[in-house]
Amino acid sequence: MKNSVRIVTLQALLMAVVISLAMDSVNAASINIRNQCSETISACATCNSCGGQVNCYALAPYNGFQVIDVGPNWPGGVIWGYPGGSADPTDGNNAKPQADLAEMTIGAGGEDYYDISNVNAYNLPLLINPTTIASPGQRQGLECGTPICSISNIYSFCQSPNYLTGAVGYGCYNVDGPGPVATAGTEQFANACPDAYSYSQDDANHVYACPTGSNYEVVFCP
């Protein structure tokens, strides 16, 4: 009798493991990072649970891409890019504070959250788009929406108090962006990219959500 109970218990545990693995597979997200710019760029990715590891990929112009599988949980994920094909994590770390960011948290209570941030700077046109939407999501406003930030001429855009970063990111610093309130400097970013964060507490109408199990693309120069 004891042996049969043990067998049943073991079978139940194995079934629970199989179901858990199946659910993880169903809810796992993939992110297709694409470069539609006319030049080679390096795209980098990291997350809060990655132990600080930064992975960078050289993406050829006109639709070079890299698909990353982030699983069902990717807390504090960040994707950014910079000109050139070095794909060097050191360059990537140096470029990050000079770049606009695709910020993503995958698997937070059944939802994925994402936004574009110009809080530190802007350097490359950027878009986040759900490519497959998990049930019961629908594309409506901030629900499974597609934020975009594209500035055609960074040199004419970047005016005082903001200033050009130079290498490695070749962006425009948002001087007041890390602060808690909007300023004349942050308004330059807000007016150019209304879908994106322009200062640190610019939460209203800038955080998008889609059900976990959705897949995404992050596109440079959309």
UniProtKB/TrEMBL annotation:
<dbReference type="InterPro" id="IPR001938">
    <property type="entry name" value="Thaumatin"/>
</dbReference>
<dbReference type="InterPro" id="IPR037176">
    <property type="entry name" value="Osmotin/thaumatin-like_sf"/>
</dbReference>
<dbReference type="Pfam" id="PF00314">
    <property type="entry name" value="Thaumatin"/>
</dbReference>
<keyword id="KW-0732">Signal</keyword>
<feature type="signal peptide">
    <location>
        <begin position="1"/>
        <end position="28"/>
    </location>
</feature>
<protein>
    <recommendedName>
        <fullName>Thaumatin-like protein</fullName>
    </recommendedName>
</protein>
